[in-house]
Specification:
With about 90 residues, the protein is mainly alpha-helical. The chain is built from 3 helices and no strands.
Length: about 90
Amino acid sequence: MSTRGRWALICLLLAPAVVLPLWVSLYDRQDPTLFGFPFFYWFQFALIIVSVALTVPAYLLSQGADRADRVAHGLPPEPGGATREDRP
């Protein structure tokens, strides 16, 4: 997969974690309750779990995409490494 495709996938993975909390009318209600908690509260807790589950793979993909972009531009795979000019 090209790095452009990886970055697009990363954006898609992170979008629900940004959009869903901002869409207040989606969860601005009391029913249904879960273990006595109104929908608003347990939905927020579920969003935390979903956000973490989507952010971790996005982070791992971004590390690989960043590494590939750096190599494609002639930089070392990791910041602080030797560049082309520094190599013997």
